[in-house]
Every structure is written in C-alpha cells, then in structure tokens.
Amino acid sequence: MAGSFISMISYLVTICLPICYNNALSVSVIFFLKLMQVELAKRLVGSSFADRVFFSNSGTEANEAAIKFSRKYQKHTCTEGKAPATEFIAFSNCFHGRTMGAVALTSKVQYRTPFEPVMPGVNFIEYGNAPAAVELIQQGKIAAVFVEPIQGEGGIYSATKEFLQSLRNACDEAGTLLVFDEVQCGLGRTGHLWAHEAYGVFPDIMTLAKPLAGGLPIGAVLLTERVASSIKYGEHGSTFAGGPLICNVALAVLNKISKPNFLSDVSKKGLYFKELLKQKLGGNPHVKEIRGVGLIIGIDLDVPASPLVDACRNSGLLILTAGKGNVVRLVPPLIITEQEIEQAADILSQTLHVLDANNSKCDDFASMLSLYVRRVCGYFAI
Ligand SMILES: Cc1ncc(COP(=O)(O)O)c(C=O)c1O
C-alpha cells in the first residue's frame, strides 16, 4: 500500500505535532515503517529456536510479558475441570527486573521487600539445585521456570548443562514452560549468539533487551509457536515497542554480532582476558575465583569490591560490582581490543592492593562521600 493518508490515530496518540509539515505523510511513513519490526522479528526467528517475537521497551517488560504469556499458555492448555498452573520457579542470585512481576521473580530481597506484596506464587530454589526444582515442577503447579543461563547481576554464575537439561526434561513432562532470561548474557556476550547454545538446551521462551539496539530502549520475547498460539491478538501490547528507528538499529546490531567471525573473536578475547586475569591477579589472597565465559567475567573477592571500583575508576577503568558486592563484574563492549584488555588487566593488578585491610578503610572524607554517592545511585540503577 502506498500514498498518503489522513490520520485519525496520531500513531496511537503518540504524535501531537507532525514530524514534518504534512501530518498525513509523516504518520503514514511511521505506520508503514512498522515493516522494520517485521524484518527484525524475521532475523530473530531465523537465528534462534523461536517462531514468533513480541517486542517491548526493556528487559523487565520482556520478562513481564513472558510471565503473562506463561500464565495464558497454562490457561489455554489446561484440561477442563483442572486449575491451571499459575506459580513460578526462580533461582538464588537471579535478577529479572524491577516491575511488579519481574521483581517478584528477583531473588535479592532489597529489590522486593520495599514494594511487597509483589506477585504471589514465586518459589526460589538454589541456582543449580536440579533435584529440588524437578521435585517442585512435578507437583504440577508451576506455570514457568525462569532461569538465566549465566547470572550477571547475581555474581557471574554459569549454569551447568546437567542443570538446564534436568529443567528441560521436567518441564516437558509436567507441561511447564522453560524461560531463559538472556537479557544480560545473550546476544553474543558469551561468544555464542545465545548463551544457551553452548548447552544445547532450548527454552520455550527467551527474553532479550540490553544490547539489542546498541543502547536504545528495546526488549524482545522470543516464543515457540506452541506458546504463541495461546495468545490472542490484543491480549498484550505496547505503544512504543518495536518502533522503526529502534528496530532498524537492532537489525544493524544483530547483523554485526551474529557473524561467526565476530562471535569467535568474542570467545578468543574472553579466554585471553580470563587467562591474563588469572596470571596477574590469581596470586592475590583476596581473589577467590575468576570465572565466566566470553566477555562476561567475574572476579570473586573475599572482601567488598567497592574500594577497587573507585581505584580503577581513578586509573581510567570502569568496572561494576555484582553478587553481594564482593564480585567484580567485567562486561566490556564486544569490540574491545586485545590491547585494551591488557590495559584493563594491568590497571586491575596495579590497584588490587586497595583491598588490603589498611588501605580499604574509608579513612578520609572524600572516599566516604564517594562510597555514599555510589550506594545511593546504585539503589536506583544497576
Ligand atoms: C538478566 C536480567 N534480566 C532483566 C533485566 C532487566 O532489564 P531492564 O533493566 O532493561 O529492565 C536485567 C537488567 O540488568 C538483567 O540483567
């Protein structure tokens, strides 16, 4: 369809002023550029287990949609006279977002308790404890199991193949859905386009966000046809999700990161980074473990990592904490060079001494103030 249109929809009331002086033209351009969304959905489907895609604006919204889709699927497939499964399983150290459903699935109590009561029916099980999860799934009340193949915010913990496979088998037997949250670990970060590819275990639903549009707000829920066919048109939706600009950017990102050479480079750089860190930091008594895969790496410390975060920042290196504040989280851009990796490892090794008891005391006003500001900001943003 081509030509111009007189709009009585203002692109679902989001446009109060025309983008150009011909309102009809601008609106028709936006309306039909929805085709970008279709292109992006096709690319996501073509490169994954999924048959259908729902777009959102963030990771938490993607998980919120996955919660709704799981509930709807259970209602749709439930045999007559039986109550549909409505509960969920999530795991220790997990993070799924901050909206009311996603925060209910998030294990850190400080994110949940200020807003209770949150969505009921979430069962937390220790990450990796397959027998406990299987036992609960077999009881038939679980609509879906939410799991990060590699936990980011929780402290860079990787699932084992046995754990994910046990979840998959138990879900298949009980009619429970398996949801992989790859908001942080997906899209090339592990050296695979999808983190779960390394395990050969596939979900019914996968949620994505963060890097998909190179930093612009987007989220996506990838679903099998079996799940998607239980959702009727209009049962869930979003005004801004999957807009043409963002989808176009996401297509460019996806085209670049899904190239085999790009992904194998991420793997190589990740191995090199981990090896360097082991060489340079491994002997330090505060370093308990260096773990992770590809370019999602954690340095587990026996003390809080915050003095190291400050010292690295003062030396030109930006790092994050994870876990209970004792894990250094390294999630560099996937285009980082080997030289930059070497610089980062050098700065970490040169600043590590701040973790020694005497140095880590906040004995001057400036460092106490910096700690306070970071804690306040950290409360609102990861
Ligand atoms: C695994 C995981 N899921 C969900 C989210 C929430 O994403 P967003 O901040 O885009 O809502 C995050 C954010 O850090 C995350 O790491």
From TrEMBL:
The primary location reported for this protein is mitochondrion
User: Coiled-coil region(s) at which residues?
Assistant: none
Return the broad EC class.
Answer: transferase
Q: Cross-referenced InterPro entries, in alphabetical order? A: Aminotrans_3, Aminotrans_3_PPA_site, Class-III_PLP-dep_AT, PyrdxlP-dep_Trfase, PyrdxlP-dep_Trfase_major, PyrdxlP-dep_Trfase_small
Q: Which Pfam families match?
A: Aminotran_3
- Keyword flag Amino-acid biosynthesis: yes
Give yes or no: UniProt keyword Ligase: no
- Catalytically driven reaction(s): N(2)-acetyl-L-ornithine + 2-oxoglutarate = N-acetyl-L-glutamate 5-semialdehyde + L-glutamate
Q: Which EC number(s) does UniProt give?
A: 2.6.1.11
- Sorted alphabetically, which keywords does the UniProt record give? Amino-acid biosynthesis, Aminotransferase, Arginine biosynthesis, Membrane, Mitochondrion, Pyridoxal phosphate, Transferase, Transit peptide, Transmembrane, Transmembrane helix
Q: Which organism is it from?
A: Pisum sativum (Garden pea)
Q: In which pathway does this enzyme or protein participate? A: Amino-acid biosynthesis; L-arginine biosynthesis; N(2)-acetyl-L-ornithine from L-glutamate: step 4/4
- Spans traversing the lipid bilayer: 6-33
Q: Provide the cofactor list for this protein.
A: pyridoxal 5'-phosphate
Q: Which family does it belong to?
A: Belongs to the class-III pyridoxal-phosphate-dependent aminotransferase family.
Report the record's Gene Ontology biological process terms: L-arginine biosynthetic process
Question: Could you tell me where this protein is found in the cell?
Answer: Mitochondrion
Protein name according to UniProt: acetylornithine transaminase
Provide any one GO MF term from the record: pyridoxal phosphate binding
Tell me which Gene3D superfamilies the record gives: Aspartate Aminotransferase, domain 1, Type I PLP-dependent aspartate aminotransferase-like (Major domain)
Cellular component annotations (GO), alphabetically ordered: chloroplast stroma; mitochondrion
